[in-house]
Amino acid sequence: MAESERDGQEREPEEFDFRWAAGAAHKEPSARARMLAARWKENPPGPVPFRGEPRGRRRRRLRLPVRRSPWGSVAVVIGGLVTVILLLGYFGFRAPF
Fold it and tell me: CA 17, CA 11: separation in Å to the nearest integer?
């Protein structure tokens, strides 16, 4: 097919153009929105409280959460760096410059 013939035809875009989609005059609702609208037309939902009703007794956690000091992570990072530096020194790593 010649280049001039391709210009007259609509080409398939290589990637989705979001600006083109955002500028659409009509936006179609999702399938779930259409399903809920049809269901609610016949049977509208009742009022829902801001906080849900309690479901009964809460399950007891098997383990209590461990409270860690924020310095624990810092110690692990610094310890890791010291280990890497010592290993590089042990194997005789030399910088190329």
Answer: 13
Q: Which amino acid, residue 48?
A: V
Distance CA 33, CA 41 (A): 12
Ranges assigned E (strand) in the chain: none
Whole-structure pTM value? 0.29
Taking the chain (97 residues) in runs of 10, the rounded mean pLDDT of each run is 52 72 80 92 84 63 70 91 90 69
List the structure tokens of 74: 């810092």
Instruction: Judge whether 29 and 37 are in contact, CB under 8 Å.
Output: yes
d(CA 61, CA 58): 9
Which residues 6+ apart lie within 8 Å of 29 measured at CB?
A: 37
